[in-house]
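Handout, section B. The chain below has 419 residues.
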Amino acid sequence: MRFLHTSDWHLGRTLHGVDLLEHQAAFVDHLVELVRAERVDAVLVAGDVYDRAIPPVEAVSLLSDAVARLAEHAHVVLTPGNHDSAVRLGFAEQLLRPGVHLRTRVPDVGAPVVLAPHPGSRTGAGDGTMLVYALPYLDPDAARSVLADDASSPLARSHEAVMSAAMRRVGGDLARRRASGFVGRAVVMGHAFVVGGLVSESERDIRVGGVDAVPAGAFGGWGLDYVALGHLHGPQRVVVPEVARDAPGEAGPVAGAAAPVARYSGSPLAFSFSEARQRKSTALVDVGRLGESGDDAVQLVPAPVPRRLADLTGTLDDLLGAAGENHVDDWLRVVVTDPVRPSELYARVRGRFPHALQVTHRPPRPAERETVTAVGAGHDPLDVARDFVEHVSGRAPSDAEVVVLRGALEDALAADRSA
């Protein structure tokens, strides 16, 4: 069997105020065509389908369209991430068409989605089945009692504790199935920060009580073939150590279980400038080759790039000249380094670069030891304003600027007295 691993669509997200829905729709078109062309059996979406718990109507419509189109060609399995509302995402789970699986309930982590080869795929009908243990995002506060052996004695308040408990349920179910003769492949989907992963600026902090990470070893020793991870936005491999453990259940230990291939698919679009150098992709996984060739069984299919992200730094004349020639159509973070702030800076930069998202003036200044000055009630507000202008611009304000500063301060004082 073959499946696509993707995650972190963040439908409804903006980039510095720019609506990304059009570009997200282009990714959906790309994904549907990839599913059709490669004739895969399943699409696994490992969390953060939406960008927030209450998504905009347009994002809901796009997801509905995406699932309907994908389900024409493959099974679809979706789980919520830390951005999604599990209740809202999974409200219609029992009403969905066959082949579409929303797994949002924490108590169901030990019950896999059982996938047979899709009729439209390249896989032969007799080539067996695949188990997908689709774990929703496990918030420790919500899951520590649900996943505890005794609900009156909750697990530790950490991501490691709840993920390890979920994996014990997964391992127990898989061991019982193996003992009963199941010989197919097994995949787990998870949304978490796994130790060793490289973060970006755009992932929401999921720390709880300072314990935010899951050790990669939590996924080893259970007899799994692949771990489809979501949360981190950069596509990357996570090394799972080989772990010898006793699996709960009738089968006892998992003898000689090799470490699974574990990957973050990453987000399909860049959501911050820290992701500018990431090569966004979708993981196409040939399940039959996982046990033999590991990473060779995974092909990273590049995602469409709607617009590049880039940083531009230099004087305004340089940027408006040859230095900016190749970046006119990019989303830009612009830093202008003129000693004096150029007039109409923002308008001139946007006139040249219509997709500039950040424009900053950062004049050069000699290296000096930073000094910290306490500002109290005894300081003249005009002096404080003068010092601030000099600090951020690298020069003292001109006489005309001092007049503007004084007028603004007097107006503020007058407004305060009248209030």
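Note. Residues 249-253 have pLDDT under 50 and may be disordered. Compare this with the example in section A.
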